[in-house]
Write a structure and sequence with these properties.
2 domains; 20 strands
């Protein structure tokens, strides 16, 4: 019986075990479309998400990635209040309409208006009475008067005939109206009340990112991680505007979690992704709970020790293929999470069914990841740690503990000894900006799609063919028989 277990065990594979086969192609890499579905209801423009890790994704990463067309998943090793604030930061930064407008009273002295503008670093203020817009005053209107020490009231200097716009205005329409009327800012009015303000500067900023992922209101898309049973947090993140919630667990085939995911789903408007899993059975069980997306990966991550500590896992390419076969039947998107080292790995993940990949290591070294640059032996690095590492489980609010179904006694001075880590802490090379890293990764994926003759991600999933390679094949694939003198931006040699 036991010998049979060994004999019946399947072989499972990962990225280095295969290569993609070049095919007859009319597709030029520059013409491919990298748009992909990441959940039942959301599309993103490049198939890349950032990991919900405290050394990878806070608002700055989510904003930078959304601008490039991807999606950030805000980590949860912080209080609900702090995580809500990170989501709001992302939503505010992608919105051309500023909602928390700073205003002034018509009876205020203009010196007060001037002080507000100076303090808040803005050049104009709407003038309101009981939320009703009665005028607008700009720094240009009042600077000469303030300089001459005169102290008139705001209402004596303001422009009362204000050009306003409705909430439904598009960025292009707003820009035309602003140019026609030679104004820099347009108050947004609903039922006579001021609800926001649009500035020309914000509209022009938006044009810089044509590939950005935005919601229906034009704000950046953002996702957030939530603990498997943390319904209160899920509700708060949902209310704060998270588009997608991601149940973040090391073992999402825990049946209590599976059952609870349906309760979570019923209580939120956001789409719900659940992970991580690595088998057909887990995919079937979660899909039966009506989840909107699946995340695959048990132990492939660069700082994971689950496969060593617990002896559990499935090599990532086989895990992706197995889950994707089930997900495809139900039209549920699959995110391949962990183990991606090069752009070619992204292409291979898609070739075996993934709709998108999640990156930790490759993004942790960017400027937009949390944490400072450290210099070791003259080279720049940034900190990167597993959410199941001791540092992450005992730092922050210890979100890693329920990810790994462990409890921490906050009062215990010996809390380190009460935890069984499933990850390590370290550093990764500093890699510059998210924009630069994404350019290389997406460039590599587009090249791959050209070789495979696939114009879209869907075609890549259907058409790409693989060849099984040996150790000598892997050796031949990497640069060999030379000393690399110039490091390439998409092939680190640390
Ligand atoms: P990469 O390879 O991109 O992987 O660095 C990132 C993914 O690894 C997962 N993760 C962990 N897995 N122990 C684990 O076994 C950990 O401490 C840990 N922390 C993160 C996670 O899925 C992430 O997206």
């Amino acid at each position: 019986m036991y010998r049979e277990k060994l004999e019946k065990a399947k072989t499972a594979y990962t990225f280095d075990d295969f290569l993609l086969v070049p095919q007859a192609s009319w597709v030029e890499p520059k013409d491919v479309d990298t748009k992909t579905r990441v959940t039942r209801n959301y599309e993103i423009n490049i198939p890349i998400l950032s990991s919900a890790m405290d050394t990878v994704t806070e608002a700055e990463m989510a904003i930078a990635l959304a601008r490039e067309g991807g999606l950030g998943v805000i980590h949860r090793n912080m209080s609900t209040k702090e995580q809500v604030e990170e989501i709001k930061k992302v939503k505010r930064s992608g919105d051309i309409t500023i909602r928390d407008v700073i205003t002034v009273d018509p009876d205020a002295p203009i010196s007060e208006a001037y002080e507000i503008m100076k303090r808040e670093n803005i050049s104009g203020l709407p003038v309101v009475v009981d939320d009703k817009l009665v005028g607008i005053i700009s720094r240009r209107d009042i600077k000469p008067i303030v300089n001459s020490k005169g102290d008139k009231k705001v209402k004596e200097v303001m422009t009362s005939d204000v050009v306003t716009v409705p909430e439904s205005i598009t960025p292009e329409e707003a820009l035309n109206i602003a140019y026609e009327n030679k104004v820099e800012r347009l108050p947004v009015v609903k039922d006579g009340k001021l609800v926001g303000i649009i500035t020309v500067r914000d509209i022009l900023e938006r044009k810089k990112y044509p590939n950005a992922c935005r919601d229906e209101e034009g704000r950046f898309l953002v996702a957030a991680a939530v603990g498997p049973f943390d319904l209160d947090r899920a509700k708060s993140l949902d209310k704060a505007g998270a588009d997608i919630l991601v149940i973040d667990s090391a073992h999402a085939h825990n049946m209590r979690l599976v059952k609870y995911s349906k309760i979570m789903k019923k209580n939120i408007d956001a789409d719900l992704v659940v992970g991580n899993i690595a088998t057909r059975e887990a995919a079937e069980d979660l899909i039966s709970q009506e989840v909107d997306g699946l995340k695959v990966g048990i132990g492939p991550g660069s700082m994971c020790t689950t496969r060593i500590v617990a002896g559990v896992g499935v090599p990532q390419l086989s895990a992706i293929a197995e889950v994707s076969d089930v997900a495809a039947e139900y039209d549920i998107p699959v995110i391949a999470d962990g183990g991606i080292r090069y752009s070619g790995d992204i292409a291979k993940a898609i070739a075996v069914g993934a709709d998108a990949v999640m990156l930790g290591n490759l993004l942790a070294g960017t400027s937009e990841a949390p944490g400072e640059i450290v210099i070791i032996n003259g080279r720049k690095y940034k900190q990167y740690r597993g959410m199941g590492s001791l540092g992450a489980m005992t730092g922050g609010i210890g979100a890693g503990t329920d990810r790994y179904f462990q409890n921490i006694n906050k009062k215990s001075h010996m809390k380190h000894t009460k935890l069984v880590p499933e990850g390590v802490e370290g550093v990764v090379p500093y890699r510059g900006s998210v924009k630069e890293v994404i350019f290389q990764l997406v460039g590599g994926l587009k090249a791959s799609m050209g070789y495979c003759g696939a114009k879209t991600i869907k075609e890549m999933k259907e058409k790409a063919k693989l060849v099984r390679i040996t150790q000598s094949g892997i050796k031949e694939s990497h640069p060999h028989d030379l000393l690399i003198t110039n490091e390439s931006p998409n092939y680190p040699t640390y």
